[in-house]
Amino acid sequence: MRSASPAYFSTLGIPIISGRDFTHDDRADTVAVAIISSSTARRLFGAEDPLGRRLFRGSAGGGILTEIVGVVEDVRLRSLSQVNDVEFYRPFRQRPNVAAQIAIRVRTDPSAFVT
């Protein structure tokens, strides 16, 4: 489970296969939403369209009812030779982490931004 802001996927070059990206309207006071990887979609829903489906995310026996609004291409986090088993993304504004990472894509030499 990762928290992501709008344009996270385009910034990192992760294609959105179906559905939508997160928006600034995905806030803590709105319906909980998630974007899942294509492998996760196949694993959980087989050939069925996962968009609009709901699942509980969080602790066993409870959690937050969450609507799937998008499917993205698989990424490799732990190993380049293996796709992650299950990959969920939630909007940062629905559950901000204490620690955050920032990703920036620039059109110039990136070393100019290192201090």
Descriptive account of the structure:
- Helix content is 11%, strand content 25%.
- It is built from two helices and six strands.
- It has helices at residues 8-12, 38-45; strands spanning 2-4, 16-19, 33-37, 54-57, 64-72, 88-91.
- Strands 1, 2, 3, 4, 5 and 6 form a six-stranded mixed β-sheet that branches.
- β4 (54-57) and β5 (64-72) form a beta hairpin.
What is the CA–CA distance across the termini? Answer: 31 Å
Rg over CA atoms: 15 Å
Q: Which series of helices and strands comes N to C?
A: EHEEHEEE
Global structural class: alpha/beta
What's the mean pLDDT score?
A: 87
Number of helices: 2
In total, the number of strands is 6
Secondary structure: helix percent: 10-25%
Estimate the strand proportion: 25-35%
**Globular, elongated, flat, extended or rod-shaped: what is the shape?**
globular
Sheet having the most strands: 6 strands, mixed
